[in-house]
Task: inverse folding
């Protein structure tokens, strides 16, 4: 299900020059990898009986929906900001060692989101196609490499002209002193997102992880 959106008047936009440069002249995106402190997330999911992956998808979705730079797209020749973006995430099929890309609608309530995630998983558990269904227009991307605690990760996309949906990749978490840290990679299109915006997103995501008990 798609959502509504607001069009941006590029001529009056403060990032007009940057947008045009990174969209048309020096077409590029950039990646950044950081360690996310999930020390509060682990005991929370154990206490509530949740699975780790859907809770992290929820937190990423909640953070992405707070920042307009992570909700931008081109639609019918216009630059827009979706009112809501929904996660498209990968799930592994252990029996085939392949994965599928699934999606469920983002909701503010964690309990409702986890329920929708479980329903989607059950609906597609025997479907081994890469895309079990068409991704919603208003999407962003999440994947996980839970076997590797990486220091850096980069998606080498040959051409993502006018594809502004951000991508997030989670790695294997591990203890670091009294904390539990998880590598997280972010890839964005520079036409709509700068380092400043990524930093603010990381700040938001970290805040949500540290205060997850507020989202019961």
Result:
């Amino acid at each position: 299900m798609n959502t509504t959106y607001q069009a941006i008047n590029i001529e009056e936009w403060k990032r007009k020059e940057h947008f045009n440069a990174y969209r048309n002249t020096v077409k590029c995106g950039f990646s950044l990898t950081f360690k996310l402190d999930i020390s509060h997330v682990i005991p929370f999911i154990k206490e509530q009986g949740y699975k780790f992956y859907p809770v992290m998808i929820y937190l990423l979705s909640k953070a992405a929906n707070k920042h307009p730079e992570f909700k931008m797209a081109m639609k019918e020749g216009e630059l827009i900001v979706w009112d809501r973006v929904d996660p498209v995430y990968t799930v592994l099929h252990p029996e085939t060692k392949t994965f599928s890309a699934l999606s469920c609608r983002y909701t503010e309530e964690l309990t409702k989101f986890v329920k929708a995630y479980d329903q989607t998983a059950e609906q597609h558990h025997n479907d081994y196609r890469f895309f079990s269904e068409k991704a919603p227009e208003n999407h962003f991307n999440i994947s996980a490499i839970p076997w590797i605690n990486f220091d850096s990760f980069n998606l080498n996309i040959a051409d993502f002209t006018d594809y502004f949906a951000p991508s997030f990749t989670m790695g294997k978490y591990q203890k670091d002193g009294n904390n539990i840290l998880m590598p997280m990679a972010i890839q964005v299109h520079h036409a709509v997102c700068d380092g400043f915006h990524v930093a603010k997103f990381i700040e938001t995501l970290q805040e949500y992880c540290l205060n997850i008990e507020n989202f019961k």
Observations:
- The chain has a mean pLDDT of 95.
